[in-house]
């Protein structure tokens, strides 16, 4: 089965760009996510972490 898929993919013109694009999208997404996480304010993280412990508010 893999041979059929491989043969079909080899006949498509310019198919080599898709693995490069997918790796680039993956890399940019996770670098951006990492930058967002590390730039998040510590006070906001502490406030959000206390939400499950509040028992006087009903959502």
Automatic annotation (TrEMBL):
Keyword tags: Membrane, Transmembrane, Transmembrane helix
One family name in Pfam for this protein: FixQ
Superkingdom field: Bacteria
Membrane-traversing stretches: 16-38
Name under which the protein is recorded: Cbb3-type cytochrome c oxidase subunit 3
Organism: Flavobacterium algoritolerans
